[in-house]
UniProtKB/TrEMBL annotation:
Organism: Marinobacter antarcticus
Name used for this protein in its record: Outer membrane beta-barrel protein
Record's keyword terms, sorted: Signal
Superkingdom of source: Bacteria
Domain Outer membrane protein beta-barrel: residue ranges: 58-216
């Protein structure tokens, strides 16, 4: 009888130890399986929608602005451009522009005297230029929308029809391109046109400043 009592007592004691230890084992195994951080940061990335240059290398555009024709006042200038992008940095541009020369100060003072006829006042230039994208960047309209941009330098040579003659012309300037969509862009630019002229006296180098804005399409 005494041995049976000891046996029952030992059996109950062992069962109690097993029951007390089992939850700790399951808790340790659960902790090992759960590798999630104790604090999960509530940070969500904000998508930014930006326009990229399309895969096409050609770009065609039109522009309008103001051209200061030395000795012949400032005039409205307009024209078109065809651009071929050699790479992300370099591009070729062929352009044509139209304007009309005004009256010289001498003509304004003399009254009926005309230095040039109406047809000779028609101003037209052609040029082929090489451009280089110096500072590609981004312009943010809102925190969720960005425009890709390019600040570029450009220079080249061509010809100018003015004053009854065709004159070899050099030009140089800079521009700022804003990509509205993958295939549509706005341009803001300034150019200097240099050629030799002798219409109002001794031959000299005429420097004509052009400021313009335009719209172009990639295709």
């Amino acid at each position: 009888m005494e041995n049976r009592t000891k046996y029952l007592f030992l059996t109950g004691f062992c069962l109690a130890q097993v029951m007390a230890f089992t939850p700790q084992v399951f808790a340790a195994e659960e902790a090992e399986r759960d590798d999630r951080p104790l604090i999960e940061p509530d940070v969500k990335p904000v998508p930014v929608d930006e326009a990229l240059i399309d895969t096409e290398n050609f770009e065609v555009g039109a522009f309008v602005g103001v051209l200061n024709i030395e000795d012949f006042e400032s005039s409205l200038v307009y024209g078109g451009k065809l651009t071929y992008h050699l790479s992300e940095s370099f591009f070729f541009e062929a352009g044509i522009g139209f304007a009309e020369g005004g009256e010289t100060s001498f003509e304004n003072l003399a009254g009926n005297v005309q230095v040039l006829t109406d047809s000779e006042r028609e101003y037209r230039y052609y040029n082929i230029n090489l451009g280089y994208n110096v500072l590609p960047g981004q312009a943010f309209l809102t925190e969720n929308y960005a425009f890709n941009t390019n600040f570029y330098l450009i220079a080249g040579a061509g010809a100018t029809d003015f004053g009854g003659d065709t004159r070899f012309t050099l030009n140089a300037g800079a521009g700022y391109q804003i990509l509205l969509t993958d295939s549509l862009a706005i341009h803001l630019g300034v150019r200097q046109h240099y050629y030799r002229i002798d219409v109002v006296g001794a031959e000299k180098t005429s420097m004509n400043t052009e400021i313009s804005s335009g719209l172009s399409v990639f295709f």
